[in-house]
What does this fold into?
Amino acid sequence: MMQIRRKQISRKRDFPVDDIRRFLEPGPIVLVSSASKGRRNIMTMGWHMIMGFSPSLVGCFIWDQNESHELIRRSKACVINVPTADLIETVIGVGNCHGSEGDKFDRFSLTPRPAKKVDAPLIAECYANFECKLVDTSLIRRYSLFVFECVKAHVATKPKYPTTVHYRGHGVFMISGHNRSYRRLFKPEMLEE
Amino acid sequence: MMQIRRKQISRKRDFPVDDIRRFLEPGPIVLVSSASKGRRNIMTMGWHMIMGFSPSLVGCFIWDQNESHELIRRSKACVINVPTADLIETVIGVGNCHGSEGDKFDRFSLTPRPAKKVDAPLIAECYANFECKLVDTSLIRRYSLFVFECVKAHVATKPKYPTTVHYRGHGVFMISGHNRSYRRLFKPEMLEE
It folds into this structure.
């Protein structure tokens, strides 16, 4: 059993769904949670991209060997959870095992919370939780690409920006560094995007 | 005219195309260069994802208001260039202006180099250059999503990992932090992916 050292997550607040790029566009590893017919699962995911603001679209690569692939196809929903660097051992552990090896919430001492708008559990220990509906299944067969719409976002009230983990392959992670505004260099109309 | 302070890029080497995720999966802002019929352009891009190792696929969101959209549709090629943090003012400047406002290589003192396998210029000042062929146009109309295959990769010999810039919207960037191997925590078969 791995050692667990986790920070306490501050209270969460509703966050505008059309601005979740603040947390996803920088490219962190995320945990995807899902449920269907009494089963639930979590997977570690690194291949995702923002595809629109309004509706708030996110494209996710979910390989058909993951149990989550089937659960999400059936329930047409998932939660994208953003873990912080203190959860890195959990992130790796979740990625190391298959859904068939037992319930991952129990195994990794993660706390499921009910979502407001979709049928999938939030992971309480994560900095942010994005409730997503599957809105396009047409790219699943060709590219394992699920297109989701984020319909509700919960984000910790602090810190303003989380310290996230970003995967480079071969066991190497980049940890997110400092954040800085360069607004003064932007044309005003470019800040709308 | 903005002040330019740039580091010298070390010599580049060929890099395995099936391992470019080392640089793209962490989610950096990239510069996309393209050319067609005597015109060339550069755009700043934050919405991209790895979609496969072999072939080496990258999905890129390229809005139809960018001149690059047309150039890439015509030439069926681009180069994805990875800039480092010392180029952040150039990255913002390139994003601030439209291709119709003049040649961006000249305007931002960037050096075009011929690609080996595609008809698009590399940006010499960037840490890595990925020559890409457009392999799927079917998602362009619906999602502005271009699916590219990387056919040749050039990467600076050092440092091993670049310090990259990651966009959060509203003028705020995250600068990549330290890199660390957690191989000891991975199951061996998980390191293959």
Notes: The mean pLDDT of chain A is 94. The radius of gyration of chain A is 16 Å. DSSP finds five helices and twelve strands in chain A. Chain A touches chain B through 55 residues (CB under 8 Å).
